[in-house]
Amino acid sequence: MDEQLLSIQNLTTQYLTDESVIHAVNGINLHLAKGGSLGLVGESGAGKTTTAYSIMGLLPKLTGKITQGKILFEGKDLTRLPEDEMRKIRGNEISMIFQDPMTSLNPILTVGDQIAEVLEIHGTADTHAALAKAGDMLEMVGIPRDRMHEYPHQFSGGMKQRVIIAIALACNPKLLIADEPTTALDVTIQAQVLRMIRDLKVKLDTSLILISHNLGVVAQVCENVAIMYAGRIVEYGPLREVFSRPLHPYTEGLLNSIPRIEVDKDRLSPIRGMMPDPSTMPHGCIFKPRCPYAAAACGTRAPHITEISGRSVMCLMHEGVIPNTMGTGGHHA
Amino acid sequence: MTRYIFRRLLMIVPVLVGVTFIVFSLTYISPGDPARMILPQDATDADISHMRHLMGLDEPFLLQYVHFLFGFKSPSEDASFSYKGLLALDLGRSYVSNRPVFKTILERFPNTALLAILALILSVILSIPAGIISATHQYSVSDMVVSILSLLGLSMPAFWLGMILIWIFSVKLRIFPSLANPANLKSLVLPVITLATMNTAVQARMTRSSMLEVIRQDYIRTARAKGLDEKKVIRKHALNNALIPVVTVIGLQVGQLLVGAVLTETVFSYPGIGTIMVDAIQRKDTPQILASVVFVAIIFALVNLIVDIVYAFIDPRIKAQYESMSKARSNGAARKGT
Amino acid sequence: MEKKLRTPHATRPSARKSAKQKTAFQEFWRRFKKNRLAVAGFVIVVIYILMAIFADLFFSYDFITENQISNAFAPPLTTAEIDLNNGATAQHLYILGADNFGRDILGRIIHGARVSMVIGFTTIAFAGIVGSALGAIAGYYGGKIESVIMRGTDILLAIPNILFALAIVAALGPSFQNLLLAIGITSIPAFVRLMRASVLTLKNQEFIEAARALGARDFRIIVRHIMPNCMAPIIVQATLGIAQSILSATSLSFLGLGIQPPSPEWGNMLSDARSYISYAPHTLLFPGLAIMTVILAYNLIGDGLRDALDPKLKR
Ligand SMILES: Nc1ncnc2c1ncn2[C@@H]1O[C@H](COP(=O)(O)OP(=O)(O)O)[C@@H](O)[C@H]1O
Ligand SMILES: [Mg+2]
Question: What's the CA dihedral at C261, C263, C269, C272 to 10 degrees?
Fold first, then answer.
């Protein structure tokens, strides 16, 4: 097997608010090989961003807390690293691209300064060289270098996202986490930015975690995919296999809700219902209320992770507790 | 940029016209009759109406406003009834002292300006660091202390605070004099503190909430994600953005300083424009009141103008917004021209 | 508030909106109640209002405006002989002492509360109604009407507000009505701006468009649908505005341009006290504390309301 770059073990992250404890991430396991690419897919509120923040050490100081588990990055446990060690990794070895490019750049600094800053922080270059390198980075993301003296408001959304990509990649990180990098962009721009991330990943030999609520986006870029639901990874496996034969009912639902041209519009079946409130989790399987295959046992016994030839899934059907009726469409259909 | 400044200068013209018009109208509808005021008690009605004519008070309202702006030539031999108008900083003479009203104002204004500038400096020095510490250490003891002190400062009437300071520092401790004058720096300490308190409170609260707002922004997260340490995140990314709205508030606060000066000057019997105004009001010295109010309003408008321009320098978005606006406008004009 | 929204021809979107409104309001109230400082402010204001209403039960107006020269400057907690109107005398405990004319300071503070509360409420009610109406019109109709209203507002804002009040009182003469007028007018612009901004954001929302599509008249849309939805920021502004009004009124009275003695008013009490700072500091201390407490209370409520409306600032 390939050498592991990132290995997340039993990660549990919570937010403490005035009223309640929000169980945003509940004991997830994830692995990413050097040079690999992983898609993290789930609907809004599933805990994807929280997972990313846990890796980056960017959880809100007063409220966010990792309560259990390890995040091993090249063998070091990031959850135990002191803040100043963590700072050396952030932006340098692990970088992150955020969802909303419109607000993610400082409005009163030029884009050149903002790219150069990350190089200066990590001592990669002195001020002068950093600015020159910032120009190179801009060109790499397809923006003329003489625009480095302009301010963010002079750029379009897609261009801002490219600037953010330039910042993220400036120090040639080992791992890039892209959190819904195209969600806020126009459809036409989405494809461009996605292609750019994919190409630069290959060119710079960076490992990638691509977060999206859209399986289609991940399909274009990633080798492996993890499906997240209510703070858990309900299915994990190579992208092709997961696509051609989903093991978890939720994955199946996600796949059915991707619009395809050849399929009749009426037969699009979005998943019914809503995700459970993360401050009060239901007993048994978390997906039961929405699951078309749910049986009585699902309400009492929570599924464990079942490994099936290099893939893993959390569902009682694969533990043999209830009969596997996947593919029949279940009793709702 | 020069074009922006020029445009912005033009924009205050209608405001100034409006302000002067309102103040003028107020005196016009004022029940007191200036002609009766300057004539002896036993003057006949004929004397009064003659005097009204000499003073231009029998003219129609709008014409009087024009005189107010551009000057008035009295039919009288006595040159003191004529004046060159607001634009020439000449609105005639005080009924009480018979001196040109603007002469008094211009003599005393530097005193008020001195007080206001010192208070402004003091308030900025105290409030901005206090607000930043308070925001970056939200819920800490220092946050609570700053919050409570600024609430108290906000709630204390300046004139009362001034008198309490006099009681403590002049009467009891005998450290500072209770009467202030610009020649004696030591005597300025109490009035400056008095005047600065409200501003300090307002600015500290503003800095705190602006800072809290900025800290939540996405670009602060970006800066942290770069591996920047927290101190630099605050200094380089949060502070400048947070101070942009604070600058506007400081601009608006200058108006409050001028108003506060009226009260503070009264408490400390300080010879500034505030005491002129209060004296003039008590003696019904109309030209002096009119001139003082208009003068302060104009200064206020000019200060806001300066603040706006500074604002454009520190916030590239405003500049761009303006530039695109003026470009669109000049394009439109060009199209109309052809 | 929710009831008003349910007009006879309530449409589904607006009905849903009103249901949401209710829970939003309950949520807001729950958050406000959790803020102990704000609740303390609320209690203080209630005490002042009760003082204002029942002032005559504590001290008669005649008693606190009549001179008792022999008791001038009596320090706090002294008992002294006072002349009654019928020529008789009585013992009286001056809890907070007596002023330069021997009048009971506590009594004058309590009656002063009446004056201040009346000024605070009437000026802000006036400014709130006029300002909100103008702001709603400007925001709803836009165009020429809007620019006229907003330019007018800019001009009013261009004159620092106590200065403007001072000019009005100077022109019209110091009297209670003129004081109300002056402070009322200078309080208008804040409401105009706030209301206009709220209306602009609401104007194109679906429940308004639904009402319009159903043929509701503009006036009805503004009063029934838009205004209730803009109330929250207006209430915050009103609370802070009352504090500002009271402060302005005491300032003008202090300068001799507001309420004239012997009518009891905190500002004119301080104006008298100014001459006796070294001799009788208690005449200075208590009226000032009265002002400070009530302004502080309103500010606490205003902050509490604002935080409750915009909880993100707290977290
Ligand atoms: N700062 C926070 N404080 C409290 N709860 C939070 C915070 N951030 C996220 N959450 C909650 O944690 C859960 C997971 O959120 P998130 O990780 O942002 O999901 P995703 O990125 O998959 O949409 C959600 O229920 C969300 O409401
Ligand atoms: Mg997210």
Answer: 20
Please name the helix (run of DSSP H) or strand (run of DSSP E) that holds residue A6, with its range, or none.
strand A4-16
Of all atoms in ligand 1, which is nearest to the CA of residue A51? 17
Alpha carbon B159 to its chain centroid, in Å, reads: 18
Dist. CA C268–CA B226, nearest whole Å: 60
In this structure, the number of other CB atoms found within 10 A of the CB of residue A64 comes to: 17
Cβ(A30) to ligand 1 under 6 A?
Answer: no
DSSP lists the bridge partners of residue A90 as: A94
Is C1 contained in some domain? no
Which residues of chain C fall short of a pLDDT of 70? 1-24, 310-315
What is the β-pairing status of strands A207-212 and A37-41?
A: parallel
Type of residue found at B319: K
Instruction: List the subunits that have 3+ CB pairs under 8 angstroms with C.
Output: B
Compute the distance between CA of residue C133 and CA of residue C155 in angstroms, rounded to an integer.
18
Closest to A217 measured CA to CA, from A247, A181, A252, A253: A181
Q: Which of B18, B178, B289 sits opposite C155 (nearest CB)?
A: B18
Tokens, residue B78: 């006595």
Query: What's C284's domain CATH number?
Result: 1.10.3720.10
Whether residue C285 lies inside any domain: the answer is yes
Cα dihedral: B128, B134, B136, B137 (round 10):
150
Mean pLDDT, consecutive 10-residue segments, chain B of 338 residues?
78 86 85 78 86 86 90 81 84 86 94 94 95 92 94 94 96 94 94 95 94 93 94 92 86 81 93 91 83 88 83 74 57 42
- What is the number of the ligand closest to the CA of A45? 1
Ligand 1, atom 2, lies closest to the CA of: A15
Sequential DSSP letters for A18-71: SS-EEEEEEEEEEEEETT-EEEEE--TTSSHHHHHHHHHT-S-TTTEEEEEEEE
Quick check: is C261 in a domain?
A: yes
Residue ID of nearest Cα to ligand 1 atom 11: A24
Domain that holds residue C276: 38-66+111-313
Question: Phi then psi for A301, rounded to 5 degrees?
Answer: -120, 125
Total of domains in chain C: 1
> Contact A138/B247 with Cβ under 8 angstroms?
no
To the nearest whole angstrom, how far is the Cα of B240 from the nearest Cα of chain A? 8
Residue C80 covered by a domain: no
Q: How far apart are CA C189 and CA B85, in angstroms?
A: 30
Q: Is the CB of A155 under 6 A from ligand 1?
A: no
Give the closest of B219, B229, B240 to A104, CB-based. B219
Q: List b or e across B314-326, with b for residues whose CB sees 16 or more CB atoms inside 10 angstroms.
A: ebbebbeebeeee
Residues 6+ away with beta carbon under 8 Å from A37? A201, A207, A208, A209, A210, A221, A222, A223, A224
C190 touches chain B (CB under 8 A): no
User: How far is residue B13's CA from residue B19's CA, in Å, rounded to a whole number?
Assistant: 10
Query: In chain B, which residue's Cα lies nearest the Cα of A149?
Result: B316
Q: How many CA atoms lie within 13 A of A4 on its CB side?
A: 12
Q: Which two tokens stand for residue B24?
A: 């003028």
- Helix, strand, coil fractions of chain B, as percent rounded to 5: 80, 0, 20
